[in-house]
Amino acid sequence: MSDVIIIERFAQLISNYTGLRIRAQDREAFGKKLWSRINALKLSSLEQYYQLLEKELAQGDTSWAIAGRGEWKELLMLLTVGESYFFRDKGQFWLLKHIILPEAIAHQRQIWYAQGTSKPSLRLWSAGCSTGEEPYSLAILLTELIPDWEKWDLLILGTDINPEAIAKAKQGSYNSWSFRLVEPEEMPKYFHRRNNEWVIREKFRKLVTFQPGNLVSDRFPDPTKNIANMNLIICRNVFVYFDPPAIATTLEKFYQTLRPGGYLISAHAELHGQNLGKFRAKVFPQSVVYQRGANSSLNLTNSSPQLLSIPKPVPTKRTHAVPPPFQSSNRQTTRNTPQGLYSSPSLSTEEKQHQSSLLKTLFGEAQTLFRNDRVQVALQKAQQVVRLQPRHFGANSLIAEIYANLGDYQQAEHYCKQAIAIDSLSVEPYYLMARIAEEKGDVEKAKYWLKRIIYLLPLSITAYLELAAIYQAGKDMKRANKMRKAALEILQELPAEYSIDRPETVTAGELRRYVQNMLEDRHP
After folding, report:
1. H or E element that contains 445
2. What is the residue-averaged pLDDT of the chain?
3. What SS3 class is residue 182?
4. With contact defined as beta carbons under 8 Å apart, do 332 and 427 qualify?
5. What average pLDDT does the segment 288-314 reach?
6. What's the rounded Cα separation, in Å, for the pair 441 and 446?
7. Using CA atoms, how far apart are residues 460 and 309, in angstroms rounded to an integer?
8. How far apart are CA 405 and CA 458, in angstroms?
9. pTM for this prediction
10. Region 373-402: what's the mean pLDDT?
11. 3-class secondary structure for 497-514?
């Protein structure tokens, strides 16, 4: 058998077992790597080496993946020379910090609150983690996003097919090349110096678990290995080495391993043109990410824009934290609940479609009427929606806002509570409850609702600014400035052109300048 043919067989064997694709242009270098192992083992031919690899697989010898032994381990160390660094890809880490992880954190808090479990939990998996920079970056990020992280059940799992890379990851010791995106002054917060390397601090190290893993051959989800019910899977710069069947196999297993609503992140364009199976692509300016469909009423899929939006205030005599150029009108557009909540299960498919269409039309008319100041007619339309579908979040929220604008705070609070009962993670009713409390002079209750918003969605800029205004009105400038500094810290992480308010165009840069001026003018 010619060397060309047997090298092709090696390539196929490796692809079948690991998913790694040996490209035609890499075959010569691949052949040299095979011969380096043949010589090390004192074998005489490619055929002998091939039979050795086949024998390990036939005997089910996966000890290389368990304890770093076996010839497969040696070969894979030659084929997978990983390269990583901390906080790799600023755009994707911006998404993680400001959209994806805050969404998951709020979701998991709510599950914990509703189910009464001992601790809220969050489960992240860095698949193909190389020497560990990525999962340690996630650990650092979570401690910044979750102030009480020590009271959480956190799992950050790092796996890689290369056991030598896993061994280095467990050591947590890195040279300066791994920190090319970390500011020098930040280093001591996360690492301590040891000789010529930086070692990850223990509080971050203990959050991460490392183990070898083969994305193609291993079975998962696998609760016995803690690979199940993940909120997030990051698998970057791995699929580029896989052939299409291996990609399809791995994507299906990832889908089953994610919790409903969970996200998969790959490197840019890595999955372009691939069959995504049941995953749904979501396009952000920073990156495309992939989400498993949600089957829970706690889904936050549509909530990410709310994290940074400025809700529309109820008319009030008090001067608000946001000055006139940044205030929205009092015409709030409230989102719908999922279409699946609209229809009675006893209706036929045609009747359900008719009811869904009718509800959509009625609610759209109610919103338009409200925007055009035809408040009473808008109220009648929204009430008609609620009679047809009592658990229509949008209609209940709109009714609450209408009553608040009419000054009927008792009814407004009633419908706010109805909306919260339907979707306790949507922030609009909480903002309205806070403003009603302010109008009634109950500043402590207003602070309660605003703090609840921050608890659920830590990036709610408006909640910080409204709390600042309340503290300022009470002559507590220390707390007022603390709230404004928190808002400014969030704004400084956003691109200057990032649109925060809708339908008006208010950029992060404009609002950042306003908050900075407020701090300069009112600094104690």
Report:
1. helix 443-456
2. 81
3. coil
4. no
5. 49
6. 9
7. 8
8. 28
9. 0.54
10. 91
11. CCEEECCCCEEHHHHHHH
